[in-house]
Amino acid sequence: MKTTDSCEELDDLVRIDLIPTDGSVMTIPFAVQYIAQLKGRYPNQSPLPNGSCKFADALLTLAVADSSEADALLTDKTKLTAAPSREAAGEVFTHTLECPIYRGYQAITGKLAAISGRDFFIVATCYDGRQYLSYTLPNTSQLNWKRSQTPFAEGTVTVTVKAMSTLILLDT
Length: 172
Description:
mainly beta, 1 helix
């Protein structure tokens, strides 16, 4: 049995997309362990290369730069980690995303009802353009929004999902 000694962490994130699992097409089942790489990008390329994952439209988009696609703006202190733990299903990774938000409180609040109770993937885009996928197990997606009391931030989005793999590199 393969085990992982430590957690994986990304902290150079410039964009986060929460994508519903329904409407997305993945090339490998979610129960396969230790997936390192999958073909695909978000948003989907046109035309889609053979054997690529196809993602549905994002439920929520957080970015460091203001654009028409971004629902809210996140700070450079955003972090995504994948930590292993031993469970009945074997080694399961808990992916935790911490996103301090400095603009977009109303947009996030307005979308919480549509996201609540739905399973979603996390696609994290790094500064250098690399994208990583949190390939969520069914019924493990959780999103929490906490409003801040500090004058320089509006709040923090915290997302937790469980997966059979650590962060998966998306590659074309």
